[in-house]
Amino acid sequence: MPTNNTRQAAWVAIGSLFSFAVGIVSPMILSRFFDKGDYGTYRQVMFVYTTLLTVFSLGLPKAYSYFLPKYSREYSKDIINKITSLFIVLGAVFSVFLFSCSGLISRILNNDDLALALRVFAPTPFFLFPTIGLEGIYSSFRKTQFLTIYTVATRVLTVACTLLPVVIMKGNFIHALIGFDVASLITCFIALLMKSLPVKNEAHKQSTLTIRQILQFSIPLLFASIWGIVHSSANQFFISRYFGNEVFAEFSNGFMEIPFASMVIGAVTTVLLPRFSEMADGSRMNDEVYSLWQSALEKSAKIIFPILVFSTAFAKLIMVCMYGDAYGASSVYFMIKNISSMLYIVPFAPIILAIGKTKEYANAHMVAAFLVVVLEFISVKTISSSIVIAIISEICQTLKIYLMLRVISHCAGRTILELIPLKSLGIVLFISCLAAGATFFVSLLFAVNKWALALICVSIFCLFYYALCWLSKTTYRTIVIGFVPSLKNKSLLKFIP
Questions:
Q1: Which pairs from 416-422 meet CB under 8 Å and 24+ separation?
Q2: To the nearest 5 percent, what fractions of the chain are helix, strand and coil?
Q3: I want to staple 12 with a disulfide (CB 3.0 to 4.6 A). Which of 155, 267, 277, 279 is the partner?
């Protein structure tokens, strides 16, 4: 990935990192102030929102990244306004649906407290939908550093508005949701202002892009999103309905992609989609796209693999530090998700979208969704284990990634094995496992509290991994230089593997 792309991706990743660091404060604190039942209800509200978000957004979030690079700058304002107007209408429809169907949803998820919670939360979609796609705009204009500032500021605002009624006023989960509504309203005004800034000084002309063309691009993504939501929501639905909201609270805390992994992949995807949209000829992956793919894959693995391996080895310690001793059982789900997340480094989405293979994209999601629903239904009727449900979900996710790789392989004219730099990825994975294993055995020598132990383990792992990078000649210099070009000729660089 060229230097500038690396730097742009890094800005997006930094914003996501701070977003996670600030956002994780809410569940860490709320899980301590609420009992498991109330906390489970709060998480169910977020589950319902994120589930329906994909459906009601009609696959539009990537439209900015796809269309803006294809038109001259003078048409950008018109394109942004057209897509934003669609989001406003969809947000209004979503809010009405959430309010009117709150009772039905609460019965489906077998939680009477959920109905009132959803009605209180209902204004949020109308406020937040106009904010969607901001990262696509700023990535297209290569100004992702401003996106980072926006992300950090709005996440801090959301956490503050959510926690203050609970911590200071001793409120319950309803008060937390009201705070979320207030933060969403303020975020909406900020985002609308941010959307206008990149094109403020540009000439304004009406583009030939029509709403119909936008929907023709987004509708196949909608179907893919629906199938993706069926896949990701099936395990949450079955656990919520058949195992209760307390088990759901444990599951929802643990069964998450390691935030740093999703940050890196999200950043790579955000930056690469406009580049692929500019370069791809619509039928085959050219050499430049292939080079970007390989570079992105290797750099992503170098960042993600060490974090995933460490998080797997110390899953219980991480869960207990984050959510308290009551959530030690969440570590099992956390381990399952971390192991499977090693496959998520493949940035297949931007290439498939750029070359127009949206139908194949949707079909892969459909196959995985069908299998996960069938297999998890059989599981709850026979084995009745929430852990098995988590494993089934990740097996089907692996199948979906394989189907995506087949599409890319065909377009690139290369085999799947040629697409993936197995040697370099294997070395990173191997030294990560060595460092984590050594750290685990050394950690047994310390009898300290959990926070001190976590800090010690992170420090020891970093030292082991740093040494192994030098021994294996695994370099991070290109990543560092890509983000900080001024270090290229500095003596400081000699200390980086």
A1: 419/293, 420/297, 420/346, 421/294, 421/297, 421/298
A2: 85, 0, 15
A3: 267
- pLDDT tops 50 at residue 2: no
- Distance between CA 258 and CA 231 in Å, rounded? 18
Domain membership flag for residue 114: yes
The predicted structure's pLDDT at residue 73: 80
With respect to residue 383, please indicate whether it lies within any of the assigned structural domains.
Answer: no
Inter-CA distances, 395 with 78, 231, 339, Å: 43, 11, 11
DSSP 280: -
Q: What is the pLDDT of residues 426-465, one digit of tens each?
A: 999 999 999 999 999 999 898 888 999 999 999 999 999 9
Range of the domain at 62: 34-209
Give a yes or no: residue 457 inside a domain: no
In a domain, 385, yes or no: no
**Position 169: which residue type?**
M
pTM for the model: 0.69
Instruction: Report phi then psi at 50, rounded to 5.
Output: -65, -30
Which residues, including other chains, have CB under 8 Å from residue 302's CB and lie 6 or more apart? 428, 474, 476, 479
On whether the CB atoms of residues 176 and 33 are closer than 8 A, the answer is no
What average pLDDT does range 260-273 have in this prediction? Answer: 63
* Residues 165 and 29: beta-carbon distance below 8 Å: no
Q: Which two tokens stand for residue 229?
A: 């939501």
Rounded to an integer, what distance in angstroms lies between the CA atom of residue 448 and that of residue 404? 46
Helix (H, G, I), strand (E, B) or coil at 58: coil
Number of independent structural domains in the chain: 1
> Dihedral sign, CA of 20, 21, 26, 29?
positive
* Farthest-apart Cα atoms in the chain, separation: 68
